[in-house]
Amino acid sequence: MKRCALAALLAAMLFGLAFSASATELKVKGNLDVHGLWSANLRDFDSDTADGDNYYTTQRMRTYFTFLQSENLKAVLGLEINTDWGQGSGGDWGTDGTLDTRVKHAYIDFKFPDTAINVKAGLQGISLPSMFGNPVFDDDAAALVVSAPINDMFGLTVGYTRGADRNDPNDVKINRITGEFTDYADQDDMDMAFLAAPITLDAFALTPYFAYAMIGENTGYSYQDNDDSTVWIVGANAELTVFDPLTFAADVIYGVGESDDYETKGWYADLAASYKFSMLTATLFGTYGTGADDADDEDNFLPTLSEGWELTPYLGGLRAFNTGASDGFFTDTVGVGNSGTGLWTVGVKLADITFVDKLSHNLTVLYARGTSDEDADVWFDEEDSAWEVYMVNKYMIYENLAAINELGFFALDHDDLDADNSYFGSVGLSYKF
User: What is the 3-state secondary structure (H, E, C) of 306-340?
Assistant: First the structure.
């Protein structure tokens, strides 16, 4: 019923636009990815333990409708449908479930009259500047963002987003015996404000930024002991192209998260150098995120709010397919490294390797090691390490339709575990429209 209502709503909007095309223009874009994945020891690294079903098929469709009144005023609606074949009422026979259909974006985008000041208000993508996806905040959010160029070289962006509000003001009740209204618990909100100041020169770009979050003790997200918490972050993203085709990019972030009885403070940095050859682009990269020590009341982790760090399929969850079924196969399982913290990495990526028309290859090889103290209560520490090899083969069937094959290998060397190697392979289609 909900899916029918959603379809009826979209039909009504499109039908209405057909009669007001002179006033509003509709633009549509999106993507649809479908792929199957085969694996061995994908998350448990133990050949003696059955993995259950070693194959699954999943798909994701994202569609963005832009209702364009003019170049200065538009509204954007983004819908997302995630389906694991055979699972749930949306993926079994009948395919009429609604649990995996969601609104991703819904925001107003406009410029103040006769100015370059841009405002976005509503559900939208919010990402602090980064190279591999920001370790602190990179997610969809309910937000207000205002940005403006100061001149040709300098700009300014300020934003506010609410991550939690546990009280419903429309659900107030009165006690019929005492005559008193419901006394809701306060300190139930989670908010973040941020500021970024991009600087763009001929061959150099730098974006420093600052973010501050207040987390109420009754949100369920606060740091230890259910106290009110605060998080502040200062960082910068930079890119140097003066030596093109040799380019450099880097991030550095420092942050503190604290409540009355607990504190964590740490930093994250990454650096990449890329050289574009005629048949491929080679990138040497490294990342470092501080980890935990053995103290009970403090840590050395960079505090994170809603991270989006992605390096590879096992570390962070970067995939060639836009299905995003989970975070990293390794880091999500062990609870360390999904935000790039608690480990360091070094690797090389060979991208856009082409020998045959319409066929390209990407190859990534990296080494990772934990940064937490071996006496800290962390599963992946300074005594543990891993190797990963990830290859993507892509053939363009049409200009917007690609057949993709992924191959992944992960070898874990853990101080307390006799780990077996992990493998996976996938085949699927990716359509962008």
Answer: ECCCCCECCCECCCCCCCCCCCCCCHHHHCCCCCC
